[in-house]
Amino acid sequence: MIPEIGYGALIVTLVLAGWGSAAAAIGARQGRAALIESAQHAAVGVFVLVTACFALLVYAFLAFDFSLEYVASNTNLGTPFYYRITGVWGALEGSIILWTWMLALYTLLLILRHRENARDLYPWALSAMLGVIAFFVLVMTVPAPPFARLSPVPADGRGLNPLLEDTGMITHPVALYLGFTGFTVPFAFAIAALATGRLGDAWITLTRRWTIVAWYFLSLGLLIGGWWSYHVLGWGGYWAWDPVENAAFMPWLTGTAFLHSVMIQERRRMLKLWNVALVVLTFALTLFGTFLTRSGVIASVHAFTQGTIGAFFLGFLALVVLVAFTLLAARWDRLKAQGTVDSVISRESAFLLNNVLLVAAAFTVFFGTVFPLLSEAVRGVKVSVGAPFFNQVNVPLFLALVFLMGVGPLIAWRRASMENLTRNFLWPVLTGIAAAAIVWLLGVRSALAALALALTAFVTATVVLDLVRATRARRRMGESLLPALGGLVLRHNRRYGGFLVHLGVLVILVGVTGSHAWSVQTETTLQRGESAELAGYRFRFDGLAGSEESNHFKVSGTFTVTNGTATPIVLRPAKKFYPRDSAPIAYVDYRLGLKEDVYLVLGDFARDGSHATVKAQVNRLVSWIWIGGLVLTLGTLLAILPERRSGR
Amino acid sequence: MTRAWRWLIPLSAVPVIALLAYGFRVNPRDIPSPLVGRPAAEFTLATFSGEPLALESHRGKVVVLNFWASWCYPACYEEAPVLERNWRAYRDRGLVVIGVDIQDTAEAAQKFIRQFGLTFPNVRDVDGKVSIEYGIYGVPETFFLDRQGRIRAKHVGAVTDEVFRREVEPLLSEGASATTPTGASARPTGADS
Amino acid sequence: MTRLIVVAAWLVIASAQTSVGQQAVPINDREAYEIALQLRCVVCQNLSVADSPSEMAQQMRAIVRERLAMGERPEQVIQYFVDRYGEWILLAPRRRGFTLLVWLFPIVAVAVGLAVTGLVVARWRRRAEAQRRPADLTIDPAIRERIRRELEAEDG
User: Fold this and answer.
1) Is residue B49 part of a domain?
2) CB atoms within 10 A of CB B193
3) What is the Cα–Cα distance from A93 to B52, expressed in whole angstroms?
C-alpha cells in the first residue's frame, strides 16, 4: 500500500504547489488577496503532505518494506537502526524528498515571518518558493520516484552504501541541504524584487538573516563533509576538490560574496544590480550542484545513479538562469546604482575587491570542474582537473581574501585618511611581520605557511585592536571590564558576530596550513611485533583479529603507539568486507590532538596475521579545522541575534 | 554600457548550458587508451598451475587479452561464457584468448574458472604490474592484438558476441604474413558502450 | 552466500600482500609521495595515488618507488603513467596547448574583475566630485568671488 499512498500524496503535492505558485503570482499582479490567501493554504498543505511522505518513507525503512524499490536498494535486515533512518536520504530519491521537505519548511517559516511585514514582495517570494518546490516534487513523480514499487518483493534488501554508515552522514546532508535550500529564500525575494520593480533595500533587509542562516548551514555542511572524509574515507585528508565538493563550495563562495556586498547596499545604497546577480548566481550554483551529483555527467565519488534526472535538473537550471537574468536585464535601468566614493582607498573598494576575489574563485572552481567536459568537446581528449590544480590556483586568491578580511572591517567608508590607516593598521601590520619573523625563527621554511600565519596574525590583531579600543572607551564611561566587553559585543552583535566568524575562518586556515605544510606519512609492512617510527611515534604491529558484525565482516589490526614517555595508546584500524561490495572499506583509527593527529590506515595483510601493511600519518593541526567550525557557529549565532539599538 | 549590452547577461548562460548538455553524450568512465596502435607490452606470468606463460609465445595468432577478477560482478560473470564460446569457435583460425586475473586470490579465481569451465589459458597478475603496464583502470577490460602483437582495440566492460566478432574477424582475415598498417587502422575504443 | 563472499573478499586482500612485502625499504619517500600526488588513482574517482587506500593505488605507489630506485627522474616516472593511461591520469593538466586554458582562466578572471572594479570605482569618484560641484554652483557668483579673493589673500 505504501507505494500507492506515497505516490498519490506526491501527485496532490505537485498540484498544490503548482496552484500555489500560480495563485500567489496572479494574486500579487491583480491585487487579489483571496488568491494569495489560497496560495498560503496551498503552501501549508504542501508542507503537511511532504512531511507525511517523508514520514512514510522513514516508516518504510524502519519496517523493512522491501516492496519499495528504494528501501530494498538502500537497506537490508542487517542495517542498524540509526542507519535505517539516515538511509532514507542516503541515495538519490530520498535526498530529493529531504530537500523538498526543507524547502517546504522554509516556505512555512517565510509565511510566518513575512506575511505581515513585506506585503509587496511576499506574494512573489511565496510564488517563487512554491515554484521551486513544484519542480522538486515533479522530479519525485517522474525521474526519481522514492515510492516506486518493486515486484516481486525480495526477502532482503541490498543494504546501504557502507561508506554512509557513519554519524557524519546523519548530519552532513542535513546541514548541507539546509544550506542549499536556504539560499532559495533570498533568491525568491530577489525574484520578487525584480518582479515588482521594488529594487531598493527592502528585500536585502528582509533576507539578511535568511542568508546568514543558509550560509552557516552550508559552511557547517562543508565542514562535516570534511570530517566525514577525514575519518571515514581513510585517505588522510578532508578536502579532495572532488566535483561534488566543488559543487557545494561554489555557492558558498558566491554566498559569502553576497553576504558582504549587501552591506554596501544597506549602508551606501550601491551595488543593487550586483546583489541581485549574486543571489541568482548562488541559487543557480546550488542547482548546478544537484545537477552535477545526480546526472552522472562528471565522474565523482559521490555520484548518484544516472538517468533522465540530469536532463530535468539541467532544464530547470536553464529556466531559472535565463528567466532571472532576463528579468535582471529588463530592470537594468532601475538597478543602475548611483554610487559615489571619494577615494580608491576606502571600505567600498575593499568590499569590491573581496567580491572580485570570491567570484573569481567561484568561476575558477567552476571552470576547473567543467573543463574535462570542455576538453572532450573541443579536442576529444579526456583530462582530469584535480587537487594539485585547484590548490595552486586558489591559494593566492584565498590569501588575498584573508588580507582583505583584516582590512575591510576597519578601513573607513568613502575615504580612508592616512590617520585612519595608521590608527587601525600600524599595529596589526607590525604583528603580522613579527609573526612571520617568529615562525621563520622557529624553523618554518615554507614561505606559503609563513605568509598564511602572518596574515592570520595580522587579521587577529585588527580584531583584537578594535575590541580593546571599544572596550576601553566604555570603561572610561565607568563600566568594568567584563560588562563593558559583553555589552559592546551584544550591542553591536552584527559587527562582532562577523568578527567571530572571521576568527573561525582564521582558525580553520591555521588548520589547513598546518596540515598541508607539516603533516608526514609513511607506508610500511610490519611483521608481528615489529615497529616503525614516524615523527617521534613508534607503531608496533601486534596482530590481527577478525569479527563478524551485523552486516559485514571486519578485520582489524592492533597497533600500539608510543610517543616518548606518554602512556601507549592502542589503535585498531580495520578493513570492513561488505557482501555487496567488491572492495573492502578501510576503517581508519586515529587519536586526535590539538597539535597533531595520529592516523592509521590498514593496508594489505597476511591471512595468518604474521604481517600487515600500514599507512601511518601524523597530521598536524587538523583539529583546528573542527574547532574553527565551532567558533564560526558561535559567531553566526551572535550575528543573527535580534539587534539591540536601545543604547544608541 | 549601451542598452543592448545587457541582453548579453542572460545569453552568456547559453554556452554553459550547452556544454553541460553535451555532458549527457559522454561517459566519464570510458577512458580511451593511448596504447591502441602500439605494440603490446611483453609479459610472462604464471598460470594457475604455476607454469609461466609468455605473451610472446602466441605471436602470429590473434590474441584477445582479457583482464578480469572473480569479484567483478556482474560484468565478468556475463562475459566469461562469451569468451569461452568464442575461443572455442575461433581457436582453429589462429586465435587465442588469454585471461589475466588481477587483484584476486588464487582460490576465488580458480573457483570462477571451474564455474564457467574456462579452457583458455589464464594467468595471475599478482603485483599488478602488468595491469598497470596495460593501463587498466577497472575490470573487465579487453585488448585485441593482431598477429604482429600490436594492440588494435580496447574494450571496456563485458565483451559480447557482437563485440568479439566485430573486433576479431578483421584481425583474423589479415593473415599471418601480411604487414598491417600501424596506428592508422587503430580505432577508438568503447564506441559501443 | 553472504559468508562466502566475505571470505572470498578476505582472501583477495590476503593474497595481495606478497607484492608489498618487497617494498620494505622506503626510498625517496618524499619524492615518491610528491609524484603520487600528481597521479590520479585509476580505480577511485578524484583521489590521488598518494591518498587512495585502494590496492591498485598501493601497487602504483610501489611502481613509482621502484622506478625512482632505478634512477628515473620524476618526469620520467610520470610519463610512464601518461603513456599507459593518457593525460587523464594527471590530476593537474599540463601547462601547454589546450590545457593551458584552464591555468590561464583564473588569471583572466581576476584581471577582468579588477578592471571592471577599477572602472566602477573611477566612475563613483567622478560622480562624487560631480555632486560636490553643483553644490558650489548654487552659491551666488558674487559671494564666490569674494571667497576666492579672501582665500588668495590668505595664501599670499
Assistant:
1) yes
2) 12
3) 51
Q: How far apart are CA C4 and CA B152, in angstroms?
A: 39
Look at residue B7 and tell me if it is in a domain: no
Between the two ends of chain A, the Cα-to-Cα distance in Å is 62
Rounded to 5°, the CA angle A8-A14-A20 comes to 135
Nearest-CA distance C86 → chain B (Å): 6
> Residue A257 corresponds to which cell in the numbers above?
560574496
CATH number at B114 reads 3.40.30.10
Mutation for testing the B interface, residue in C78, C84, C120 having most B CBs under 10 Å: C84
* Burial (CB count <10 Å: 0-12, 13-18, 19+), residue C80: middle
pTM confidence score: 0.89
Q: What mean pLDDT is predicted for residues A569-591?
A: 83
Name residues whose C-beta falls within 8 Å of residue B79's C-beta, 6 or more positions apart in sequence: B66, B68, B140, B142, B158, B159, B160
Q: What is the pLDDT of residue A85?
A: 84
Give me the residue spans of the domains in chain A.
1-159, 166-219+239-328+346-386, 417-518+629-640, 520-621
Best of B68, B107, B151, B189 to substitute, by most chain C Cβ atoms within 10 angstroms, is B107
**What is the DSSP-derived secondary structure letter of residue A622?**
T
Coil vs helix vs strand at B96? strand
Structural contact between residues A529 and A611, judged by C-beta atoms closer than 8 angstroms: no
Percent of chain C residues past pLDDT 90, beyond the cut: 35
> What phi and psi values does residue B30 have, to the nearest 5 degrees?
-110, 105
CA distance B193 to B188: 12
Strands (E), A461-502: none
Alpha carbons A368 and A464: distance in angstroms, whole number? 38
Confirm whether B2 is domain-assigned: no
Q: How far is CA B114 from CA A390, B49, B70, B87, B109, in A?
A: 49, 13, 11, 16, 9
CA distance A97 to A444: 50
Percentage of residues in chain A with pLDDT exceeding 70?
96
Cβ contacts of B17 on chain A, cutoff 8 Å = 314, 317-318, 321
**Residue contact A370–B19, C-beta within 8 A:** yes
Distance of CA C123 to the CA centre of its chain: 34
Beta carbons of B75 and B139 less than 8 angstroms apart:
yes
Rounded Cα distance between A541 and A552, Å, is 24
- Tell me the pLDDT of chain A averaged across its residues: 88
Q: What is the pLDDT of residue C109?
A: 94
Q: How many domains would you assign to chain B?
A: 1
Mean pLDDT of A363-387: 92
| Amino acid residing at C153 | A
Domain residue spans of chain C: 2-92, 101-155
User: What pLDDT score was predicted for residue C14?
Assistant: 39
Q: Which domain holds residue B110?
A: 34-177
Cell output for A228: 566525514
In this structure, what C-alpha cell is assigned to residue B62? 590473434
pLDDT tens digit string along C33-81?
A: 889 999 998 887 778 998 887 888 888 998 998 999 888 899 999 999 9
CA distance linking residue C33 with residue C49, whole number of Å: 9
Q: Between chains, do C19 and B126 touch, taking CB under 8 Å as contact?
A: yes
CA–CA distances in Å: residue A438 to residues A412, A447, A549: 31, 13, 51
- 2.40.50, 2.60.98, 1.10.1060, 1.10.1660: CATH of A520-621: 2.60.98
Assigned fold of C2-92: Helicase, Ruva Protein; domain 3 (1.10.8)
Phi, psi of A346 (to 5 degrees): -160, 170
Chains touching chain B through at least 3 C-beta pairs below 8 angstroms are A, C
Question: Is residue B24 one of the residues assigned to a domain?
Answer: no
In the structure, what pLDDT confidence band is assigned to residue A589 with cuts at 50, 70 and 90? very high
Do A84 and A62 form a contact (C-beta atoms < 8 A)? yes
Which grid cell is A623?
Answer: 583539529
